[in-house]
Design brief:
Elements: H1 2-24, H2 33-50, H3 57-77, H4 86-90, H5 93-114, H6 118-140
Helix pairs in contact: 2-3, 3-5, 5-6
The chain binds heme C.
Length: 143
Amino acid sequence: MKKFTIAAVSLFSLLCLSMSFAQTDERQPLLSVKDIMNGLIVPTTTIIWGAYQLETDAQWQEVRNAALSVIAAGNLLQFGGAGEGEVVAAAEEDWKTYNQQMIEAARLVIVAADNKDEEILSAVGNDALYPPCESCHQQYQKR
Ligand code: HEC
């Protein structure tokens, strides 16, 4: 009986321990929004907006990969960033809306790349991908 109690207690403390590990290990932003912008968004959107007279499959693949990275960045931005107040900002409806618009635009870039359609790619880049950058910055970028 006593042995059982000890086993139960140690199992319990083990569970608590792993729970506290799980808590410190919980998803939390590792990058600031600024880092996400400069490290992920800028280089990838530069590829997308700079795409012109693409010829090879590899070039289209590069555009497609860039769009995937924009989606990944958008995925990070859903949780905000490591900077002060960035998790709170990311919980706001407007932030979610602009971020979602950017993600949707990146999905359209993938469709354009899959169809190797430069006209659509250019239209998506200007009319869908760019506006959410502007809207979000107007509201959330501190000057
Ligand atoms: C959901 C909101 C949001 C979206 C969408 C967004 N940004 Fe940002 N961006 C921010 C915020 C907030 C900052 C300010 C970060 C800071 O200064 O700490 C920023 C800053 C920047 C900066 C300046 C970085 C610096 O070093 O000061 C660039 C460049 C940038 N964004 C590019 C883009 C581009 C290009 C897009 C669209 C493809 C985009 N962003 C979409 C929120 C967003």
